[in-house]
Specification:
With 268 residues, this protein is mainly alpha-helical. The chain contains eleven helices and two strands, in the order αααααβαααβααα. 68% of the residues lie in helices and 3% in strands. The protein has a two-stranded antiparallel sheet with strand order 1-2. It is globular and about 60 Å long.
Length: 268
């Protein structure tokens, strides 16, 4: 997002509540997401927080399992349902186009907080690794953590979190010509969905895997596979033959020898 703003634009916005208030709402939601996303990853990895996917107060096994499955279903339904073009068209009947992504992000973050607060750990251990193996598994989690942020920055971090749309609509009033460009650089040269790759690493790479952690990883892996299926359909509709050619060369989640040595925009 280009943050260049002329003094006259600032004055205009400060004296026009109809422009200032929507931007401040989008900015506040961006900050909300900035807190929620790292806490979600730390919660999922079992790091540092007083309550995580692995530890915390919980009910007996059967009620905990029912609650956790319901929470995972809520996440999948909300996240995928609101991401569909038909739902976006419905939302924009009630809110400006520039705030549609902001509404989506605030709903995602709200559901994430419900999950974090209501999650019932299932502490039975599936595995616990020490030494080199434990270090490798913990390193895999942090690799996934970093990859999540690298992928969003390269794909357009500010656009994904809704602030770019509001900034351009209410501050600069300049359209963003880069939104619909097919990204093939950085980690996108190796895999089509590096954000999902990062999430998969952060869910599965754990030196201690509890039953609750396994349920979390399996449930959200299923969501990722289903969500990616629908996202691929949308991407083919948007980019056509260019995306089909890209998908034929680059794997979805994990690099292949062919994708490692491929150059961006290289076509067979």
């Amino acid at each position: 997002m280009d943050l260049t703003t002329r003094p006259s634009q600032v004055r205009d916005v400060l004296t026009a509540p109809r422009r200032l208030v929507p931007f401040l709402i989008a900015f506040a939601v961006y900050g909300f997401a900035g807190i929620t996303v790292p806490l979600l990853l730390l919660f999922a990895g079992g790091w540092w927080l007083p309550k995580t996917v692995d530890k915390g107060s919980h009910l007996s096994t059967v009620p905990s399992l029912i609650i956790d499955v319901a929470l995972l279903a809520l996440f999948g339904l909300q996240h995928s349902g609101m991401a569909r073009p038909s739902f976006k068209a419905f939302i924009t009947r009630w809110v400006p186009d520039a705030l549609e992504r902001t509404v989506y992000i605030v709903m995602v973050c709200t559901v994430v907080w419900v999950i974090i607060l209501a999650w019932q750990p299932l502490p039975q251990q599936i595995w616990s690794a020490d030494g080199t193996v434990g270090t490798v598994l913990d390193a895999g989690f942090w690799l996934g953590f970093v990859l999540v942020y690298a992928a969003t920055i390269l794909l357009n971090h500010f656009y994904l979190l809704g602030i770019s749309q509001a900034y351009r609509q209410y501050i600069t009033r300049v359209p963003d010509a880069t939104v619909d460009q097919l990204q093939e650089h950085g980690p996108y040269r190796l895999v089509r969905h590096p954000l999902m790759t990062g999430l998969l690493l952060s869910f599965w790479f754990a030196s201690t895997m509890t039953a609750g952690h396994l349920l979390w990883a399996v449930g959200l892996t299923g969501y990722i596979l289903l969500g990616t299926y629908f996202e691929e359909r949308d991407l083919i509709a948007r980019f056509g033959a260019a995306y089909r050619a890209y998908a034929a060369e680059v794997p979805a989640f994990f690099p292949s020898p062919r994708s490692v040595f491929r150059r961006p925009n290289e076509r067979p």
